[in-house]
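Q: What residues go here?
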């Protein structure tokens, strides 16, 4: 007979996932416990095979060549006065401020973090291993901030199942351990997950197996075995976002290549001879836009304006309404992004406009999104088409463009990337930064609506979450060296049974195709619960948990409780993160942006503490316990 782990009968919460989302939740539990829970005893069980803080994605054990795609000053794990929450604000250092504290000795850290922090400036892009050190420090600080009678128990294992009735305590089963953890409440903070192959990918994998080819399906690039991609051989790569950038780095610098900088500042790539040749394309056919390389000075757009709490309330209040993103939500987003763009153009660059801002704003507010009146207004007030916001053109930059051959496409794409780099580092185009801020605002509002479908998340990432500028300069150097070749937009991949190869083409160069014996799907798997490889989520789905039309786990917008298929929130099960329909764009955030993840963490922490205070069994009398984490191996009750 198995013996459940909770010998003292103390109230307990099991948090599955020790990455930044689980860490952020512990920080909020520590912040809210004095008000809602007092000094009562509590066990927090943290379950993850990877060390807490960074978890799997931000673990220290990955290539030092891999970077973050946000500058150090734009990364924080702490709340500030902009965050709309019921709990207390507990400020803390951004990644840049933490690195400065490590350098000065004000923040103690080991030699690894200290070495990485030594050269990190506020506008630099940190390596992921340094971010891992920051997240580990945040975790340690959050645990230390818990009340004295709250103990944290770390379990370096994988949770495989949750059982238990709605009314009773839950059992959390861990791989390799017969005794479950007993929990009053369970929180799933699982992060990015692996998935079963969808039908198209299964067919390609089967084809590869029959013909002795290499097929690497969607996955986190740092976890992928790239050894099958052989030097000098062509590799088809489908996907042009951040997963591709990691792939590009690991197969070039990661195999011994290097860059030199000429007198004109242009990078030149020096191959090692171990690189494959990457033929990359995607739906858009271009890389994500570079991160903006300047700061916003002057007046910020007053956001939200056309897509804020009032508009979301109205959408959610429609009786029996089945909201359609394109019909009901996108027009409001379109107008919000346009408002931010033109507010910045008129207030910061008035010489490029033909109307005063108050008159334009009044007419803009009255015009229908995308309608003829709005187009006429913008045409009259903004003479240069380059100063007008065209979201459709941004989303499809190569639409209608045809190149006579592959060589022309290479030149055309290099010109496009060079222009993007120039624009994203030129404050004369600061309306782009205003649109970025509007995108963050919009994402914060959309969390309340739930599943928006995959297009919005991709569009947001393409405009707002692209690679650092230096990575695109490296891409240009690799293109000039012939190590990377562009395939164009509307990329297609077919299995050529006759020749036994993969074949790729695109709409950008009609009639041309490229064949290869290797195909890499450079993107993360879709976070669908029904097809995830995570045993716990699949069991939860089989047990009646609801999912959205695109397969995300349905949760209550108020506090993250898991919903069943009748829409009832489970009183004891919660979920946070990208596998839910409240996905919030990131577990850490840019400071002073009212980050959705911080708001969600606070609401969930307060719901946990309130439940335990009001409904859990009275705590047994016990001596205070230490606040330092207790590992599974040293916790006698968990042997």
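A:
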């Amino acid at each position: 007979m198995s013996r459940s782990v909770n010998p003292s009968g103390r109230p307990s919460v099991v948090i599955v996932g020790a990455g930044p989302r689980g860490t952020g939740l512990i920080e909020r539990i520590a912040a809210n416990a004095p008000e809602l829970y007092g000094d009562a005893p509590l066990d927090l069980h943290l379950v993850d095979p990877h060390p807490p803080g960074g978890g799997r994605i931000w673990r220290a054990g990955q290539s030092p060549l891999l970077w973050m795609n946000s500058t150090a000053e734009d990364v924080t794990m702490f709340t500030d006065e902009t965050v709309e929450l019921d709990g207390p604000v507990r400020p803390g250092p951004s990644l840049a401020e933490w690195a400065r504290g490590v350098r000065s000795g004000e923040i103690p850290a080991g030699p690894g973090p200290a070495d990485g922090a030594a050269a990190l400036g506020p506008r630099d892009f940190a390596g992921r291993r340094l971010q891992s050190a920051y997240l580990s420090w945040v975790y340690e600080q959050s645990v230390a901030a818990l009340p004295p009678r709250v103990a944290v128990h770390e379990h370096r294992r994988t949770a495989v199942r949750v059982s238990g009735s709605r009314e009773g305590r839950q059992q959390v089963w861990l791989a390799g351990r017969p005794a479950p953890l007993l929990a009053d409440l369970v929180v799933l903070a699982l992060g990015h997950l692996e998935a079963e192959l969808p039908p198209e990918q299964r067919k390609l994998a089967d084809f590869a197996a029959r013909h002795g080819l290499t097929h690497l399906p969607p996955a986190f690039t740092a976890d992928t075995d790239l050894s099958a991609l052989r030097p000098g051989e062509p590799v088809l790569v489908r996907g042009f976002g951040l997963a591709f950038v990691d792939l590009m780095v690991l197969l070039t610098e990661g195999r011994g290549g290097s860059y030199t900088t000429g007198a004109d500042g242009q990078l030149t790539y020096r191959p090692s001879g171990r690189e494959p040749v990457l033929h990359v394309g995607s739906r858009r056919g271009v890389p994500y836009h570079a991160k903006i390389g300047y700061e916003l000075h002057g007046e910020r757009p007053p956001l939200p304006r056309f897509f804020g709490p009032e508009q979301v309330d109205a959408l959610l209040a429609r009786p029996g309404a089945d909201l359609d993103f394109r019909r009901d939500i996108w027009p409001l987003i379109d107008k919000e992004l346009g408002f931010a763009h033109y507010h910045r153009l008129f207030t910061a660059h008035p010489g490029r406009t033909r109307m005063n801002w108050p008159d334009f704003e009044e007419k803009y507010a009255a015009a229908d999104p995308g309608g003829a009146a709005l187009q006429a207004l913008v045409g009259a007030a903004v003479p240069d088409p380059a100063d007008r916001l065209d979201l459709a053109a941004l989303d499809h930059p190569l639409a209608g463009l045809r190149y006579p051959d592959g060589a022309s496409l290479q030149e055309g794409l290099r010109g496009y990337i060079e222009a993007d780099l120039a624009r994203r580092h030129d404050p004369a185009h600061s309306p782009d930064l205003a649109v970025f801020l509007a995108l963050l605002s919009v994402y914060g509002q959309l969390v309340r609506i739930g599943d928006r479908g995959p297009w919005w998340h991709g569009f947001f990432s393409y405009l707002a979450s692209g690679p650092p500028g230096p990575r695109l300069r490296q891409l240009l150097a690799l293109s000039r060296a012939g190590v990377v070749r562009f395939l164009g937009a509307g990329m297609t991949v077919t299995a050529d049974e006759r020749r036994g190869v993969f074949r790729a083409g695109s709409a950008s160069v009609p009639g041309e195709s490229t064949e290869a014996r290797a195909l890499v799907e450079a993107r993360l798997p879709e976070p669908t619960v029904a097809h995830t490889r995570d045993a716990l989520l699949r069991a939860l789905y089989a047990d009646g948990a609801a999912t959205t039309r695109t397969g995300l786990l349905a949760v209550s917008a108020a506090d993250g409780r898991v919903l069943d298929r009748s829409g009832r929130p489970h009183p004891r099960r919660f979920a946070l993160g990208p596998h839910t329909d409240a996905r919030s764009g990131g577990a850490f955030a840019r400071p002073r942006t009212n980050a959705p993840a911080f708001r969600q963490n606070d609401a969930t922490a307060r719901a946990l503490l309130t439940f335990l205070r009001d409904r859990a069994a009275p705590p047994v009398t016990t001596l205070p316990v230490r606040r330092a984490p207790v590992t599974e191996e040293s916790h006698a009750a968990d042997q």
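A: Context that may help when evaluating the design: The CA atoms of residues 547 and 553 lie 5 Å apart. Confidence is low (pLDDT under 50) at residues 617-627, 633-639.
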